[in-house]
Amino acid sequence: MEFAEFAALADEIEAEDADLEVIGLVAALFETAGEDLGTVTRVVQGRVFPAHDATKLDVGPSLCHEALAKAAGPNVSAADVEERLASVGEIGAVAESLELGGQRGLAAFGDGDEATLTVAELDGQLREIAAAEGDGSTDTKLDVLFGLFNRADPLEARFLARLVLGEMRVGVGEGTVRDAIAEAFDVPVETVARAIQVTNDCGLVAETARETGEAGLAELGLEVGRPVKAMLAQTGTAVDAIEEWESAAVETKFDGARVQVHYDGGETRLFSRNLEDVTDPLPEVVEFVERELSVPAILDGEVVAVDEGGDPLPFQEVLRRFRRKHGIETAREDVAVELHAFDCLHADGEDLLDAPLLERHERLADLLDTGISELAVTDDPDDVAEIEETALSAGHEGVMLKNPESAYTPGSRGKNWLKRKPDVETLDLVVTGAEWGEGRRANLFGTFELSARTPDGYATIGNVATGITDERLAELHELLGPHVRSESGTEVDVEPAVVFEVGYEEIQRSPTYSSGYALRFPRFVGVRADRDPANADTLERIERLAGD
User: Between 469 and 400, where is the model more confident?
Assistant: First the structure.
């Protein structure tokens, strides 16, 4: 396919606003792409490489501007291109407006062939740019870009400039490509969507749909060494999760960096959430994987930085390791990392994406003896609160809630994985009681009774024990000790003197407490040292927030 033909069709696509019409135009483009179908499928999205390949062109605006200026002739400078860009606002329009090709006689492009540029030639030249590295790489990239622009007509120049800077802007994303493949080659859109999920390669899917149809697409699967997009979570609450699923699988939410582990039986490769290869910076993770795994597998997990005692360190410490290209052994001594695997996508030749979460976790446990994130299933929000408290006390971010029966859907941010929603509202409530703790907290107050202010005194609304570390608990015990009025068994009556700021998920009617309300999922935020009980929140405000 000639690049001019692609550019003409891309121009039509860009001018069309209606989604269905855009899909039809993209389908027509695919039908006419011939042997360049895979490349065209990527380029129309502004990609040079498949989505699973994190290779970059590494062409910045200044290099592009210099190549355009050079192709426009000796009377045009990079500063002129930048000035026009400031006026026009879009690099494609600038490239289209320049009189390129004035130096064709220099035969600066490749072997000097000045014939019409094809999509295949363009793809090869862009890959040469991506492969250039080391001394002289900038000059190489400039020469190749100059050669491409020198051969481009105005419309080709518009889309070439956009492509090399990752700004295609024709309104074609993966969803449009999915639907266009289905329309062009008469295959079910659901089958195309599934094939894209497991291959992360729209070009391969388009070629398969054309050559072998629905049956061929159904045979596509995961491939060890070819990363897929990570399944994503949205925010939600324990109440949301349990009401929707009846029970929730709860696991620690780590303050680390997502990794996808690929082990082919001999070699290990690690990919970041952005699908970049991060194998080299994480040698201890590679060593762990190759020590633990005995069969090919694809795992999902989190890499966490830890101190000498094994306690988690902030996320920024993980980034220090991910970004390291040199001095890796020194960095390893400074910041240790460990893997917490929480899902299994493939094991010993079997794809597990469609298997329920609990089954996938069982397969994970079969593969690894250590390094597995614990999974607890419950239908009680209070259990979730206890698990979250344990996670927070250990220095982690909190908890994840997952549908026990859910499949693994790469790239999807559906309702089957929930990050426990941060408290969107807080209340300033008075501590009017406490209970002694248990276990290691037996000598401290472990739970605190909360009350709202009323015209006649205080009305209870719940208890809080979540969100308090052992160190903070000792401080609260010391703070409240002077205000204890009496004790009965494990219960302590406390003089209203201290105000807690407390977060919560929702306020519900409840006969359990004298206020008539209860806080769902209460969480300690802090002590309001700047407030006394006379300034605490009132029952009237509770009623307003509850919508009564």
Answer: 400
pLDDT at residue 102, as a whole number: 61
DSSP 404: T
Alpha carbon distance 429, 448 (integer Å): 11
- Rounded Cα gap, residues 47 and 50, in angstroms: 7
Q: What is the number of other CB atoms lying within 10 angstroms of the CB of residue 407?
A: 16
User: Reading across the β-sheet that carries 398-402, which strands appear in turn?
Assistant: 234-236, 417-420, 398-402, 248-253, 376-378
Count CA atoms closer than 13 A to 385's CA, side-chain side: 20
How far apart (Å, rounded) are the C-alpha atoms in residues 235 and 421?
5
pLDDT at 388: 87
pLDDT mean over 231-247:
90
In this prediction, residue 506 carries a pLDDT of 82
Residue 142 banded pLDDT, cuts 50, 70, 90: very high
Element (H or E) spanning 44, and its range?
none
Judge whether 506 and 518 are in contact, CB under 8 Å. no
**CA neighbor of 178 nearest in space, from 189, 188, 168, 187:** 189
- Select from 297, 285, 234 the least CA-distant residue to 257: 285
CA–CA separation, 248 vs 416, rounded Å? 10
Tens digit of each residue's pLDDT (9 = 90 or more) over 83-121? 999 999 899 999 999 999 765 544 444 444 557 899 999
Do the beta carbons of residue 381 and residue 201 sit within 8 Å?
Answer: no
Residues forming the active site: 253
Domain coordinates in residue numbering, the chain: 47-164, 234-410, 425-546
Burial of residue 40 (number of CB atoms within 10 Å: 0-12, 13-18, 19+) = buried
Rounded distance, CA 393 to CA 388, Å?
Answer: 8
CATH code of the domain made up of 425-546: 2.40.50.140
> For the residues 457-469, what does the mean pLDDT come to?
89
When comparing pLDDT for 182 and 330, which is higher? 182
Task: Cite the beta strand spans of 243-397 per DSSP E.
Answer: 248-253, 257-263, 268-272, 297-306, 336-347, 350-351, 376-378
In contact, 420 and 236? CB cutoff 8 Å: yes
CATH number, span 47-164? 1.10.3260.10
Class of 234-410 in CATH: alpha beta
Report how far Cα 188 is from the mean position of its chain's Cα atoms.
28
Mean pLDDT of 217-225: 97
Question: What's the confidence (pLDDT) of residue 326?
Answer: 77
